[in-house]
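Customer escalation, tier 2.

The customer says the design service returned an amino acid string that "doesn't look like it belongs to this structure." They asked us to rerun it and document both sides in this ticket. The original structure tokens are below, unchanged.
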């Protein structure tokens, strides 16, 4: 994500607060839905532990979740090899969203690759633990332009022209 926003659910009469990067803020809400639209100060890019605590009648429940703040587009290295009407792309994607290796979240940490050849788009994903890719695509016209867009989970995008 690019900025921190939180949504927490608890019993309506609970007090809910969140702590991240040494800051503790109270979440406001009604009917058991508590929100923090954004922190007053923007967090720098990086990985944080967010702790959410709900207190009700002297009882406390705490949950901690990892958070990655990402404002940087994925880095893509790619080589294209054209052979007749076939294009083979070989490359690697590096991005902050691919660095979380917690098994329960790995499937959600991905970069979407979209290649456009002669106006036709092809899509695939690169996930944490598998940043390398090899992709064979049809090439209707051998000299046609080819572009690759890489978009991470935070919506950051990198555009690459394939020679």
């Amino acid at each position: 994500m690019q900025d921190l926003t939180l949504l927490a659910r608890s019993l309506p009469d609970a007090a809910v607060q969140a702590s991240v990067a040494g800051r503790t803020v109270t979440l406001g809400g009604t009917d058991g839905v508590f929100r923090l639209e954004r922190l007053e100060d923007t967090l720098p890019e990086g990985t944080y532990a967010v702790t959410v605590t709900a207190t009700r009648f002297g009882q406390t429940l705490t949950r901690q979740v990892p958070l990655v703040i990402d404002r940087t587009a994925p880095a893509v290295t790619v080589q294209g090899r054209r052979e007749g009407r076939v294009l083979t792309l070989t490359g690697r994607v590096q991005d902050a969203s691919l660095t979380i290796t917690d098994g329960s979240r790995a499937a959600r940490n991905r970069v979407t690759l979209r290649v456009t050849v002669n106006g036709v788009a092809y899509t695939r994903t690169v996930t944490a633990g598998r940043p390398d890719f090899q992709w064979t695509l049809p090439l209707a016209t051998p000299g046609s332009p080819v572009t690759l867009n890489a978009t991470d989970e935070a919506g950051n995008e990198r555009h690459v022209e394939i020679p």
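Tier 2 assessment: The sequence is consistent with the input. Residues 6-69 form one domain. The chain is about 0% helix and 60% strand. Sent an explanation to the customer and offered a walkthrough call.
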